[in-house]
Amino acid sequence: MSRPGLNRIPRALGHHVLPTTLAFFTPESGGSPNADNIDSLYKIILVVALVIFFAVIGGLVYALIKFRARKGATAAQIHGNTRLEVGWTVAAAVILIGLAILTFARLGAIQDPPNSSAAGASLIGESEGEVLYASADRRLPPNGKSLNIKVIGRQYIWQFVYPGASEPDGLGAPYSYEEMVVPTNTTVTLDIVSSDVVHSWWIPQLGGKFQAVPGYHNYTWFKIPHPGVYSGQCALLCGRGHARMIATVKAVPPAQFEAWLAYQKKQIAQANAAAKVARAKLGAQVGAGQVENP
Ligand SMILES: [Cu+2]
């Protein structure tokens, strides 16, 4: 009698259950190559650790059962074993050195952003004059082009400022709150700052955690291949409203991103124009204060 259900079990164990279980203990990934590299590094180290764990525990259980107390049996008295001791010291050192080499070999791909893909948004190169804050920490892709977004942590909301300032001092740039919209296949570099206390920027699927420190700039990057929404939230207790300080990154095709940015710019310009009219109107009014202090 054929039982197709049973045949599927070993396959499911090998291809689904194991990665899912490992994923429970390792960082989230899938949104950006740096997050994927951090995650795979964790998985490799976890597998090595699991093999050693089971070898040690297995050896211990074997010895406990095989050499358990029995009537009439006398335990052998052993005083050290140089070969064995040198062996496990050297083996542990070799494993550690191997993991260190692997980690440093992968660090570049985690820290250094790659170029945008051909399908990404067409970016204007970041010329010297456009960089407001020079820093040796900021890493740019090999071709020097990235979409640089300023992430501002503030009690209790994240603000994102996009390139495209209309005034030389950086004012008039399009911005958004809480939701960052970015083009797919495009290398996005982040310039993380804070306007009050220390916050922590973290979208787990897009890579590591970075603190937003007042008076200091922190830099990271991501590159999202597919449209999607990635969520996170401030990862450092920053005050009463900390729990509300959520953040999402919405990746959309480049054309859609450009349309969104233009719309955002228009909305902000309209709001600024309306505020200007309101201010002029208020200024023209003769109020009680002006009567008393002409
Ligand atoms: Cu917070």
Describe what you observe in this structure.
41% of the residues lie in helices and 18% in strands. With 294 residues, the protein is of the alpha+beta class. The longest helix is centred in the first third of the chain and has 34 residues, at 33-66. It is elongated and about 110 Å long. Bound molecules: copper (II) ion. Copper (II) ion (CU) binds next to loops.
Defining key terms:
294 residues, alpha+beta, 5-stranded mixed beta sheet, 3-stranded mixed beta sheet, 5 helices, 41% helix, elongated, disordered N terminus, binds copper (II) ion
The tally of strands reads 10
> In percent, how much strand structure appears in the residues?
15-25%
Name the poorly predicted regions.
1-14, 125-135
Q: Which sheet architecture does the biggest sheet show?
A: 5 strands, mixed
Strand order of the largest sheet: 3-2-1-5-8
Listing every helix as H and every strand as E from the N terminus to the C terminus, the arrangement reads: HHHEEEEEEEEEEHH
| List of distinct ligands in this structure | copper (II) ion
- The portion of residues assigned to helices is 40-55%
Q: What value does the Rg take, in angstroms? A: 29 Å
- Average pLDDT: 84
Number of helices: 5
How is this structure best summarized?
The protein has helices at residues 4-25, 33-66, 82-111, 254-284, 288-292, and strands spanning 147-154, 157-161, 175-177, 179-183, 187-194, 199-201, 210-212, 218-223, 228-233, 246-252. The chain is α+β, with helices and mostly antiparallel strands.
Please write out the topology.
Elements: H1 4-25, H2 33-66, H3 82-111, E1 147-154, E2 157-161, E3 175-177, E4 179-183, E5 187-194, E6 199-201, E7 210-212, E8 218-223, E9 228-233, E10 246-252, H4 254-284, H5 288-292
Parallel strand pairs: 1-5, 4-10
Antiparallel strand pairs: 1-2, 2-3, 5-8, 6-7, 9-10
Helix pairs in contact: 2-3
Bound molecules: copper (II) ion (CU).
